[in-house]
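Attaching the record inline, Q. Sequence:
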Amino acid sequence: QAGANGNYIARIWQFSQISSTFLEMRVSVLAAISSTADKLIPEFAKTAEAKKKQMGESLASLEATASSSEERSGIKKVAAAFEKYAGVAEQALALAEQNTNTKAYALASQRGHELADAINIPLQRTVERNTKAIKDAAAEAGEQYVKARNMVIAISVIGILLALVVSAIVASMICNPLNMLAKVASQMAAGDMTVEIAHKSGDELGKLAEAFRKMRDSLDGLLGEVSSATAQVAAGSDQISDASQSLSQGATEQAASLEQISASMTQIASQSNANADNASQADRLAKAALDDSE
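Structure, as predicted:
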């Protein structure tokens, strides 16, 4: 669109240059006709001839680069009118050189003016047409800009919504397994080793869940071993208690036996003392009987 606008502007500038060149040619012709100094007429005529050549080259260039058949047709009409005007200008300059300025002026102002309108009006219309094309292109560019802006806004809004949705999904994919693992950790801390850890994936959360499963299995085995050891310790304690009771009963029985033995020995000692006393008494009686017999 910018390239098209540039072409329209260049065309407008070219047509404006042609209009300016034609105006300079007309001024030179009228100046030559109106001049009262014979020596200035050739100078004005020379300038008019140079502008005529420049005008012809510009029209030929425009016709070769016309952007449409309508524009090419208009340029051809301008070129045809210019050729007629160039002929009228040559006639007027010839009359001026013959000092018949009145005839020359009448020719240039009447027929020349008609031909000038035939040149300027198409040029002006072409400029107006290119100007309208620029305005239309600018309006279209404005509409395209608005559409592009609205599209960018819509895409941005959709992108933001998609980002929010994706963020929510990702957060859910991360938070849900973490919440589940936190719940599992609480149950395991309470001693429940039967809890299921269902999450399985190939990402870091999957690895964490697998580590939780291994930890659960290890703790379950360790608790089983501790429970078994506790049962064995309890059984040993029962056996030790039974043995202690047996030892206590044996000690009691031994203490009773010792008391019986001690009592028996006391009785034996008492009987021995009694026997000794009886023996002493018998000995005394024997000695007394012996003494009496003598």
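The chain has five helices and no strands. The two ends are 183 Å apart (CA to CA).

More tomorrow.
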